[in-house]
Amino acid sequence: MALKTNSADGRTRSTIQIFIVVGLCCFFYILGAWQRSGFGKADNLAMAITKNTGDCNILSSLDFETHHGGEVGADSDSKPKVIDPCHPKYIDYTPCQDQRRAMTFPRENMIYRERHCPPEEEKLHCLIPAPKGYVTPFPWPKSRDYVPYANAPYKSLTVEKAIQNWVQYEGNVFRFPGGGTQFPQGADKYIDELASVIPMANGTVRTALDTGCGVASWGAYLWSRNVIAMSFAPRDSHEAQVQFALERGVPAVTGVLGTIKLPYPSRAFDMAHCSRCLIPWGANGGIYMMEVDRVLRPGGYWVLSGPPINWKTNYIPWKRPKEELQEEQRSIEDVAKLLCWEKKYEKGEIAIWQKRVNADSCPQRQDDKFCKSADTDDVWYKKMEGCITPYPDVSSSSEVAGGELKTFPERLYAIPRRISSGSLPGVSVETYQEDSKLWRKHVNAYKKINKLIDSGRYRNIMDMNAGLGGFAAALESPKLWVMNVVPTIAEKNTLGVIYERGLIGIYHDWCEAFSTYPRTYDLIHANGVFSLYNNKCNIEDILLEMDRILRPEGAVIIRDDVDVLAKVRKIVGGMRWDAKMVDHEDGPLVPEKILVAVKQYWVAGENSTSSQ
Ligand SMILES: *[C@@H]1O[C@H](CO)[C@@H](O)[C@H](O)[C@H]1NC(C)=O
Ligand SMILES: *[C@@H]1O[C@H](CO)[C@@H](O)[C@H](O)[C@H]1NC(C)=O
C-alpha cells in the first residue's frame, strides 16, 4: 500500500494525512503499521494528525460508508439532536397555506389563498405527526376510487357535495364514484366528449392543467388515456380537496389563480381545463385567461365547462340572473378573441377553444397588449400583469411557435426544442443525451438498492431538484408519477424542457414549505439539493419539510457530495428515519454518495417510535 514508499517522500506524507482523515480504523491501521515496522516516522504521523486535510480518492481499499472523516467527526461530536413530534393539532399543517395566517390577508382576488409562508421565527422545528390509525393508501388503481377514512378524516365533502356524487363515506373508506359536479354521467363519458375534439388518443395531448380541480377526478380518469394532469385547488377551510386528490394518487398541489403568476413555465400544457372552477375568467380585464394563455403551448386547448356556458338553458337551476350569466360569457368570448383563441366546440355545458400555433395566425393583435418582460418563465412570486405573452418567432406561417412536439411517449426522449434551439444556455443536445443516459444508470442502481421502486409501492414521487427530468423519464411507468421540482435558485431554468418531454413539474424554493399537505409523497428524490441550498437556508428546515410531505414508511433517496451527506445523516438520525449511506454505483472512490432512508411509522399521541 501507500506506506511502502520512502517516508521522506512528500507524496507519501500527504497520503498518510489522508489515512488520518478517513477515520479511526485507518488510524489504528496506520498506528499498527508504524509499530510493526520502521517506515513512517513518528514526527510525520504527529504532523499528519494535526493537519486535518486529505483527498480520499486515492485510497481504493477503503470503505467510505464508515470511514470518511466527515462522519468520524459527526460520530465523535455528539449524538444526533432528537427532534420531537409537533402537537397533534398540526397533523394537517401546511405552513404556507395555513388557515390562520391566510385570514390576516385580504380576501380580494383570493390573495388570502395564495402562498403566505411563516417567517423564520414562526417555523416549526418538530415532526408533523400522522393521524391515529393512518394507513398506507391503496395501490393504484384502487386508490383512484377508495381512500382510507383515517388518512383524511373529514366528512364535510360527503355532506356538502352529496347530491353531486363526488365522494361517499362507506365504513372506514371514502369512495369516489368518478362523478363530479360537471360529470353526472361519470368522468369517462365527459372525457369521451372532450376527446371528440381534442386529440388525446394518439399521444398528441399529454400534459394538462386542471384549474380548481376539486378532488381531481378529471386527472384521475385521464390517467388511463396516458394524459398527465397537474391539478390545483386552493386550500379550503375544511374540505381538503387536494389532500383527497393526492391520497387517490393523482398529481395535485395547493394553489389558486389570484394575483401571482402560476408556478409553471410558459408553453407548458397541451390542454387546460376548468369545470365549475369558480375562477372569474372574464373579470379583471381577462388577466386569468391571459395567464392560462401563457402556460398553454401553441396549438393547446382550453376547456371550460359549467357556468356560464349554456346559461340559456341553465340559469334557473343555477339560480343566477340570466343577464349576469350572458354578460359573463360575453366577456370570456371577448378575452378569447383578444388572445386569438379559436372556438372549436360548444355543446351543452362544454366549450373548447384552441390557442393558435403562431403569431402569424393573429395578424390583427396589437403590440401594446404584449408583455414587456423578457423572461416569460420568471414567475416565482411575480404579479400577473394583464398582458399577452408573445409567441416565439417562426420562420414560416405553418411552423408551430416553440417547435412542434412529438407524440408521447416518443416525446420523452426526443430532443426538446428549448435545447436544440440553444435557448437553455449551457445545455447542448449532447449534454441532454448524456444526462438521459446517466439517469437511466442512476435509476438502475436505485432499483438495486430498493427493489420496490417501480413495483407500484411508490406512486406519488417527488424529485426535489429535477434538472432535465432524467430521473422521471427513466422511471416512467403507468404505475407512478413524478412531481419534478425545479428550484427557483437553480442555475438553469429547466422546467420548460421537462414539460416538453411530456412530464410535469413546478417551480419551488426549498427554503419554504411546498404547496402540499403532510404525507402526500411516497418517495422523495433529492439530487444535489443540499449542496444547492448550502448557506441559503437551514439543512434541518429542508429535512423537516421532506419529513412533513413524506408518508410514514415512505422512502427517501438523497444524492449529494459526501461531506454534505454526512451533515444530513447526522440530522436525520434524530428524525425517526432509518438511514443508510450507500456508495455511488461507480464505486467508493466517487465523492458523490447516496443516502437512502425510510420514515418510520408513528402517529400522533405516541411518545416513541416502533423501533426505539
Ligand atoms: C392525432 O389525431 C388527430 C385527430 O384525430 C390528428 O389530427 C393528428 O394528425 C394525429 N396526430 C398524429 C401524430 O398522428
Ligand atoms: C410519554 O413519556 C412520558 C415520559 O417518559 C410519560 O410520562 C408519558 O406518559 C408518555 N406518554 C404516552 C402517551 O405514552
From TrEMBL:
Keyword Glycoprotein annotated: yes
Gene Ontology annotations for the cellular component aspect, listed alphabetically: endosome; Golgi membrane; trans-Golgi network
Membrane-spanning residues: 16-34
Main subcellular localisation: membrane
UniProt key word Transmembrane helix: yes
Pfam families from the UniProt entry: Methyltransf_29
UniProt family annotation: Belongs to the methyltransferase superfamily.
Name listed for the protein in its UniProt record: Methyltransferase
Native organism: Erythroxylum novogranatense
